[in-house]
From TrEMBL:
Its EC number is 2.7.7.65. SUPFAM superfamilies: Nucleotide cyclase, TPR-like. This is diguanylate cyclase. It comes from the Bacteria. The lineage of its organism: Bacteria, Pseudomonadati, Pseudomonadota, Alphaproteobacteria, Hyphomicrobiales.
Length: 547
């Protein structure tokens, strides 16, 4: 068995274990295993595993409240699978993306991504992806008070889960059916229909308890944990506090897998039912704990729930000043998070525009090939060779299996922030200046190309292995040391670079993929660095994050 085959087998084993941890709700362990697989795949021609590991990391990070890192992973993976025309992985990536978006409070965007995933997940072996996307759509509809549509979606999903024997996701769907009916009950109470409210709450509690029992059988600990907190909250509505306490104890028996969002949910639930049974001190203490945890995570819904519970506790205690301060804090935080949501909505729209452009190009490529060959081979902004020139050179290298070369892929760090803070005019000047740095630092025999917005590729012809790092470090240093303040006061710019050298049996596409993987890894390790290889000891490092 070859080394590459052995590595591939190790990666697949890690991903299988990570998926199992995700299914039972142990997202911390899932992230640890996903990051190990990601590091191993990034150093070789394991493109499928690389994308799978990136999605695994994104899913776990999203559940753990680390939304920015989660989005950076999944957006880059989504772009890659779209470019490859891999619709199976695109469906999964969009489902992961939808999951992260709904945790951030971007319900409408999550619904859109879930819809796209549903349209792609058409085969029986994609049933799990289909059901997850349907579940996310149902949650978005619940939050929008579109209860009839959510009910229809969950009923259909439950039938599919039952048909394929997907018991773990069946338990999740049942949990959310319980959530739906309690939300309907809350809406009825707001209309003054107390008896109807009670009926729906009882129905929701029964469904939640059923979900927990199913979860115990199939090992879905996350449903057990969330369901336990939900049941404690529902039972408190009926004044059944001793039973509520038992469910809180059950929650604590699972606390080793708790994410920050789970802790917020627990604390504000305890605050709520302690308030209902008249224990004001305990209600205030639990409410304060919920706020403390909620401020550091991305879930807008959890934060709002925590603030509401603490404000209620202050009000009941007669501390109207503190209650008012909490309401002010809620509105200030709401404005802040609205601004953040606007930022992510912009990135969401931008990504989808880019993806649609890529799909349009791929769809029309066969018809337009001759026309594309006739177009200029130079990027008009930077006057470097463009993507078509790069692709043409890659085809030439494919015909010469003995060619000695390396490929470096360079991406400017935080370039979108330059456009946002200084304007697109300054951004264009940055790209021109970077092009000048690259030309000055490279040899006449090297091909320097701009292949995307802020992404460049260099084909280093005839480079000896000992020289590759020196050349790329010179490129990186020339960008970092450039006098960027001459373009705008306070402007700084760095670049991350991934490099791979051609070896016997490797196609140019595989060399490029390896370099691109290393670029991604350079960013994950902190940016402003060159990665030419990933040491074996570094592959096993458990934690790193995108900054």
């Amino acid at each position: 068995m070859s080394d590459e085959t052995t590595i591939q087998s190790e990666i697949e084993k890690l991903l299988d274990e990570a998926f199992e941890c995700e299914q039972i709700g142990d997202f911390k362990k899932a992230l640890e295993l996903g990051e190990q697989a990601f590091a191993m795949a990034a150093d070789g021609a394991h493109e499928d595993a690389f994308c799978d590991a990136g999605m695994q990391c994104s899913m776990a990070l999203g559940w753990m409240g680390r939304a920015e890192e989660a989005i950076e992973y999944v957006q880059r993976i989504l772009q890659r699978v779209v470019q490859r025309g891999d619709q199976v992985r695109e469906a999964r990536a969009r489902t992961v993306y939808a999951n992260v978006l709904i945790e951030m409070g971007l319900d409408s965007e999550s619904y859109q991504e879930a819809s796209r995933a549903i349209s792609m997940a058409s085969s029986p072996d994609q049933a799990h992806v289909l059901l997850k996307a349907m579940d996310l759509q149902a949650i978005a509809m619940i939050y929008a008070d579109n209860f009839d549509a959510a009910s229809n979606m969950l009923d259909e999903a439950l039938m599919i889960a039952d048909r394929y024997g997907l018991n773990r996701i069946y338990a999740t769907l049942m949990l959310h059916l319980g959530l739906l009916n309690t939300r309907i009950g809350e809406a009825e109470l707001a209309r003054g229909n107390k008896e109807t409210h009670k009926l729906f709450l009882e129905k929701g509690a029964t469904q939640t308890e059923h979900a927990i029992e199913l979860a115990k059988v199939c090992g879905n600990k996350r449903v057990e944990m969330v369901g336990a907190a939900n049941l404690a909250e529902f039972l408190a509505e009926f004044g059944r506090f001793e039973e509520a306490d038992k469910w809180i104890e059950h929650w604590y028996s699972l606390e080793e897998i708790a994410t920050p969002s789970n802790w917020v949910h627990l604390h504000y639930t305890v605050s709520d039912f302690e308030l209902k049974r008249g224990n004001l001190d305990a209600a205030l203490e639990a409410g304060k704990r919920a706020i403390e945890v909620a401020k550091d995570i991305s879930s807008a819904d959890n934060y709002a729930s925590a603030v509401q519970r603490l404000a209620n506790a202050y009000e009941a205690a007669g501390d109207h000043k503190s209650a008012l301060e909490m309401q002010k804090r809620f509105h200030n935080e709401f404005r802040k998070r609205s601004a953040e949501k606007g930022h992510w909505q912009g990135k969401f729209d931008e990504l989808n525009r880019e993806i649609e452009q890529v799909k349009s190009l791929l769809q029309n490529a066969s018809n337009d090939m001759e026309r594309l060959k006739e177009e200029a081979m130079t990027d008009p902004l930077t006057e470097l060779a463009n993507r078509r020139a790069f692709d043409q050179q890659m085809e030439t290298l494919s015909d010469n299996q003995n060619a000695k070369y390396a490929i470096a892929v360079l991406d400017l760090d935080h370039f979108k922030a330059v456009n946002d803070a200084f304007s697109h005019v300054v951004g264009d000047e940055v790209l021109r200046s970077v092009a000048g740095c690259l030309i000055d630092a490279c040899r006449a025999t090297d091909l320097v190309c701009r292949i995307g917005g802020e992404e460049f590729a260099i084909i280093l012809n005839g480079s000896a292995p000992s020289q590759i790092y020196k050349v790329c470090e010179r490129l990186r240093a020339s960008i970092e040391s450039f006098d960027w303040s001459s373009l705008a006061q306070g402007l700084e710019m760095t670049a991350s670079i991934g490099v791979a050298q051609a070896k016997n049996g490797m196609s140019p596409g595989e060399v490029f993929a390896k370099a691109d993987n290393r670029l991604f890894y350079a960013k994950a390790k902190g940016r402003n660095r060159v990665v030419t290889s990933i040491a074996a000891m570094e592959r096993k490092q458990r934690f790193f994050k995108i900054i």
